[in-house]
Amino acid sequence: MAVTDEAIEKIKEMIVSGALRPGDRLPKESELAAELGLSRNSLREAVRALSLIRILDVRQGDGTYVTSLDPQLLLEALSFVVDFHRDDTVLEFLAVRRILEPAATAMAAISIPEDELDALQGKLDALGAQPSVEELVASDLEFHRGIVAASGNSVLCSLLDGLSGPTTRARVWRGLTQEDAVSRTLLEHQAILGALRDRDAEAARSWATVHIASVEQWLRSTL
Predict the structure, then answer these.
(1) What is the predicted pLDDT for the residue at 75?
(2) Does the pLDDT of residue 173 top 70, yes or no?
């Protein structure tokens, strides 16, 4: 194991064991290095790496702290990794979204408040019948983010938020090249919203699946 990897593993063990808890300040660098049997340089590199993935928070002039370790915070690193996707993996991202988002939409059908449904409907109405592709895609992202957030599962919300980036370009391209893409998207949004109003979790799940699968099927046909 590389020296830096060993340092990362030792700090991880301290957090997992409870020796360091969310919000705790790490001991001084010299003390922690001696305690863990590490060089100060390898410890410094480990701290830098763990701060990049939001496990540690380095505060200039104050010290280094364990973050809240909130799943939403930790999963922000997923967006960074996902940004390095290749075009030939977009279908795989869509497939994952097709698995997760209908489940989140079904969960939202049980718990989403009426005022949030009214807000979603208001935004769809404001979009009109002939929005630009860019307006439609921005609305689509906001629409699904609101529904997933209403599922009450912050981990699921963060995962799907991180996965949305790679599929955005596919959705824009579909809107530009598929004749009925705009009207179909608006129709499917209304159907999802109707199922949510009816508190029909299975209908909401089905419409969300149809909605995502239509983009996936179109993309498969173009490859």
Answers:
(1) 72
(2) no
Helical residues (DSSP H) of 23-113, grouped into ranges: 29-36, 40-52, 71-74, 76-82, 90-111
Q: Out of 45-54, 83-92, 160-169, give the one with best mean pLDDT.
A: 45-54
Predicted confidence at residue 130, as pLDDT, reads 87
**Residues 111/152, Cβ–Cβ less than 8 Å:** yes
From residue 130, how far is each of 112, 126, 136, 181 by CA, in Å? 28, 11, 9, 11
195-206 per-position pLDDT tens digit = 999 999 999 999
Task: Kindly report the length of the chain.
Answer: 223
Burial class (CB in 10 A: 0-12, 13-18, 19+), 103: middle
* CA-closest candidate to residue 152, choices 120, 121, 110, 206: 110
Q: What mean pLDDT is reported for the chain?
A: 86
Strand, coil or helix: 26: coil
Q: How far apart are alpha carbons 205 and 19 in whole angstroms?
A: 42
Biggest CA–CA distance in the chain, Å, is 66
Distance CA 195, CA 211 (A): 13
Q: Could you tell me which of 214, 204, 209 has the C-alpha nearest to residue 182?
A: 214
Cα 170 to Cα 63: distance, rounded to the nearest angstrom: 43
| DSSP code at position 52 | H
Strand partners, 59: 63
**How wide is the angle at C-alpha 155 spanned by C-alphas 150 and 160, nearest 5°?**
75
Residues 6 or more apart in contact with residue 64 via CB below 8 angstroms: 25, 26, 47, 51, 56, 57, 58
